[in-house]
Design brief:
The protein has 220 residues and is of the alpha/beta class. Helix content is 31%, strand content 26%. The model has no long low-confidence stretch (mean pLDDT 96). The chain binds glycinamide ribonucleotide. Residues 12, 14-18, 47, 91-92, 112-114, 139, 175, 178 line the site of glycinamide ribonucleotide (GAR).
């Protein structure tokens, strides 16, 4: 009997190029996920159109209608639970989530953050890497916990910072790496090899103290 694909919700706020990577890789068969729903906190997010074009259900929960963060999180849960998701992918979802949301989907929420965490949690990561004179920058997939950009790291992809880089050119190079590492982390989770337990990430039963390094080759 065929294993059922993991029901997955993707949460976005903007252009959704990471979402597109998930759509493309599930379509071409290189990633086995059931993209059940795409949810945005902004009705105009371009990523919603990508979802519609791919025939994926869309939901919008506008944060501006909820003055209290916990109420927004409860509304997110209500919208998502209709699809009974097993995995939550935060893909450029620019809201801070409270324990209401984190506890509800405990251990099955991934975030991607455009820096080599623990460097540069928060905003403006590309400019901060340039300003600091870093040789390397990149992106990190991690399990989301209540600590902003602080949960156990799963995989990192690095890119060189060039002399001529602006925040925009660097961001574009980082995005290209994100489109590789994020589906890969999801694939490890969907296959049962990667899990979150006792506040840590585990791969093949071993504690993952350092994130996997993406070097252009897929992890088998
Ligand atoms: C990505 O670079 C992602 O790492 C970042 O937003 C971008 C979304 O791009 N996320 C954060 O900054 C979260 N703190 P996309 O909408 O094209 O996928």
């Amino acid at each position: 009997m065929n294993r059922k694909s993991v029901r997955t919700a993707v949460l976005i706020s903007g252009s959704g190029t990471n979402l597109q990577a998930f759509i493309d890789q599930t379509r071409d068969g290189s990633l086995d996920l059931d993209l059940s729903v795409v949810l945005s906190n902004k009705p105009g997010a371009a990523g919603l159109q990508r979802a519609r074009e791919a025939g994926i259900a869309v939901e919008c929960v506008e944060h501006s209608k909820f003055p209290i963060r916990e109420d927004f999180d409860a509304a997110l849960i209500a919208a998502l639970d209709q699809y009974d998701p097993e995995l939550i992918i935060l893909a450029g979802f620019m809201r801070i989530l409270t324990s209401v949301f984190i506890d509800h989907f405990s251990g099955r929420i991934f975030n991607i953050h455009p820096s080599l965490l623990p460097k540069y949690p928060g905003l403006d990561t590309h400019q901060r890497a340039i300003d600091a004179g870093d040789d390397w920058h990149g992106s990190t997939v991690h399990f989301a916990t209540e600590e902003l950009d602080g949960g156990p790291r799963v995989i990192q992809g690095r890119v060189p910072v060039r002399e001529s880089d602006t925040a925009e050119t660097l961001a574009a190079r980082v995005l290209a790496v994100e489109h590789q590492i994020y589906p890969q982390a999801a694939a490890l989770y969907a296959s049962g090899r990667l899990e979150y337990r006792d506040g840590r990430a585990w791969l093949d039963g071993d504690r993952l103290d350092e994130p996997l390094e993406f070097s252009g080759a897929l992890i088998n």
